[in-house]
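Throughout this chapter, every protein is written as a compact record of paired, labelled lines. An example of such a record is reproduced below:
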Amino acid sequence: MFSPSKARQVLDEIWNIKSAGAALTLNTPVHFDPSLVPRLVAQHGDLNARFTALVAELGKDREASERAARDCADQLHELRRAEALWLYPVIARGFAPDPIARRLVWQSRLVMLGLARRVLRRFDELARAIRSGTEVTSAAEHATTALTEYQRRNEAEMYPLYNLMERLSSVTARAA
């Protein structure tokens, strides 16, 4: 029979296991890493630089521009993967005891997922516009706006929640 306390115990055991050089998967237990947010911000910076270079070269080579738009989408996928594997599990674990806070965190995560999907859709629209040679400027503006909003919301909402986990874990450790 299903028991919430047993399920929580199993999850706690999984989260407390140290991964010994194993490949990172969705089941790899993760812990707060103070260097994660700066790495994610740097990845956003790299993506922005790549996208800015793409926009600057839009009128020159269609194939290269289309490939660059696809590369930007791939880079965003990798950024989202890092967030899914390293950022969100730590945040979720930190808010697990409080059902209201947990629900708000999941709602925020769904908002971020929607924003990421919008950016990916805009990159795809840009690639199609480049291929067809129509409305390229408009598609680039839409992609720029979506990418900026995604990064801004991450830096304003999700990354501070992650940094809060360090303080919560230190308070919990002192109380124990």
About this structure: The CA atoms of residues 66 and 127 lie 5 Å apart. DSSP finds five helices and no strands in the chain.
